[in-house]
Amino acid sequence: MPGRVTKTAITELSTSPSTSRRIILVGCGAVARQFYVPALRALQNAGLVRVSAIVDPSVTAREIVARSFARAGQAASLEQTTAPAGTLAIIASPPGFHAAQTIAAVERGWHVLCEKPMASSVSAATDMIAAAQRHQRLLAVGLYKRFFPASRYIRGLCRDWLLGPLVEFSIREGGPFRWPAGPSFFDRAQTPGGVLFDIGVHVFDLLGWWLGEPAAVRYADDAMGGLETNAFVELDYPDKVRGRVHLSRDWPTAQQYRFVFERGVVTWKVNDANGLTVQLSGASASLQGTLVAAQAPPFLAEPRPLESHAQCFILQLCNVVAAIAGEETLLVPGEDGLPSLRMIEQCYAHRSLVDQPWLTSAEAARAHEFSASVGVTS
Amino acid sequence: MKVAVIGAGGFIGTRLIEQFHLGGGPTVVALVRRPSSLALPARFSLETHLADALDIDAMARAISGCTAVIHTALGDPAQIERMPVALCLAAAAAGVRRLVYLSSASVHGQNPAPGTDESTPLKVHQSLDYNSAKIRAEHKFFAECRRHSLVGFALRPGIVYGPRSRWIGDLATDLIEGRAWLYEGGRGICNGVYIDNLVTAIACCLHATDDAAGAYLIGDAEKITWEQFYRTAAVHLDVSWKQIHEITRLPAFKRSWQDRAGRAAAHPFVQRLLPLVPRGLKSRARAVLSASALAPRPDSWTIPDRPGPRITQEMALLQQCAWKFPHTRAEQHLDYRPAVTFETGMERSFAWWRFAQGGVSFAA
User: Of chain B residues 213-232, which have a CB less than 8 A from chain A?
Assistant: First the structure.
């Protein structure tokens, strides 16, 4: 959970803009309550932002969020909200609404931070980017895992070959679905995919950021007329690097990214923002630890742990606010939301039904019939 | 035929829906408590509803138009006791006459006396709260069925194993971690039933005559010992038999003060009062309870040892069982025939387990 962050800590994380940025929070569901509310509260207490409006069709949902932002106005829809140009709209509604709300926001002169997945489809995301460019507004995507020190470290290993070239990797993420989701999560009109469309967005975003585009992708899932709860991906990259991904909302997985390099193996626990385990080739044990700031001799001070999970979420908000003020480069612009969406569309377009070996042969045959009826994202 | 499944996101509900939906069975209406529980039912294109198993109005709305309701929902002991009344009231309000309630063989205790069958009187005061709750729940279920002229079937399966069963998942973990154990060589009887056989029994209840209503023990055809159950699992997992701890003396199980506090907190009266207690006080009480539940830090001057056996009171009782529950009554009145053998059931269970571990092969 995002925790308390002092102004001093935030200014260490990011350059402080000179004035507090006005914020409109659109969508008061689980992601807003679990992430954006505590992060924005910390930033507001530090004087860096000011939440001026809360938007959601549900009065109950708005009231819950409003407890943290007593001075913010409330509205059922974006159309009923007024704010000056330059306001930052955070779009945290179900994905089916992202494109329309983002386009409406930039047309009003607002900047946008859109929660992942950026849109229901690549074409909708492209429209969002075009609208932001047309109105010269900033569009950012909520892919905050790029801010994890561990993500940045793995990127360095993959790109700079500090442990030699990458040989293979496996990613296993997810478990019994306990996210306090609303019914929109399982309504195809609002959320057009299952587990791949959810945590798969982060996985594909990180993979793209670390390794670039794969040469070949194979995909299978267990959707039998509905939304997948287990997704399996096999990816081939140039230089014979092969990766496997298993995402689940069904049964506990290892919750682990495992990258095998020529001179060592690096494992990363899902969402452990600043922790890694390294096994150097030939060494008799693995080294598990927290990433700390690189130190210059003579090492007088205690090493300072790099940012935690909650701080990374705040860090992304700080980056967006600072980028609007022209004080920083936007680290995850709208264009960066496209590759993971493209990958997801490619997977759905070429999906096959995964073998579920406990089904009888008659059930398996029927499962294939139902599976063929599963639509691709549109 | 259209049937409602309460607890559709759970282990039994999940396989039940798979079998009915993929096997040309009745049309399923899936009921779950919260949206997140839709993850598994949502794999299919089904009618789904959000309805808490204690919310009579929500359930009545959701089951309206169904021929029967199958109740597979879980809960804590207090909820277990209250659920059958809510179920029957909802069914009566919605005009659904036939109910299949998933009870448990635990109503006879984990270590029943030889000769136990459905006619054996149930002893309400048992060492496990779950058993006592299931007995009271069954009593209430049949009482409410009589009151509302409903046709009620209560199924009493033993160890339900299969895909997504805790008996498979937990056993696999214990075997791999070296924490599995057997008491006196595992000679106790494992009253197992493969999930598909249980679903067969449920389907039998949907088609049985009204006068067949009542309670039924449900099991596999074979008489299996815990040693056979564990040995088969170890073979499927490729775990050495030497990994399994041999236990000749079981520990005494005493109820801790934390258990008593948790039990008191679950009481309906306390649950009604809880909203009046300040949030800070509740948080502090929870913090004290969780801190006291933590195992004491080991002395740093200890010799590293292999992982110890994970012995629970429930499993300790189960492994002392010397009686194979009969399902003769189900055979006679429901025409129940457990078609899946133990061997096939375990094969499918561990095929699922490998799937859950990501062991999926892609076509070239």
Answer: none
CA dist., res. A49 & res. A45, Å (int): 8
Helix (H) or strand (E) holding A244: strand A241-248
Domain count, chain B: 1
| pLDDT for residue A274 | 97
Give bridge partners of residue A59 from the DSSP assignment. none
Is B258 among the domain residues? Answer: no
Residues B109, B120: Cα–Cα separation, whole Å = 11
Query: What are the pLDDT digits (tens) for A185-220?
Result: 898 888 899 999 999 999 999 999 999 999 999 999
Question: B245-263, pLDDT tens digit by residue?
Answer: 999 999 988 777 777 777 6
- Point out the residue among B45, B349, B360 whose CB comes nearest to the CB of A225: B45
Please report residues of B whose CB lies closer than 8 A to that of A361: none
CATH number of domain containing B127? 3.40.50.720
| Beta-carbon separation of A177 and B36 below 8 A | yes
Which chain A residues touch B164 with a CB distance below 8 Å?
Answer: 250-251
Chain B residues closer than 8 Å to A234 by CB: 362
Count CB-CB contacts under 10 A for residue B235.
12
Q: A186, A358, A374: best mutation site toward chain B, by most B Cβ within 10 Å?
A: A358
pLDDT (tens digit, 9 = 90+) per residue, B296-352? 777 788 887 888 999 999 999 999 999 999 999 999 999 999 999 999 999 999 999
Q: Is the pLDDT of residue A18 over 90?
A: no
Asked if A370's CB is within 8 angstroms of B22's CB, the reply is: yes
For residue A71, the Cα-to-chain-centroid distance in whole angstroms is 29
Quick check: is B30 in a domain? yes
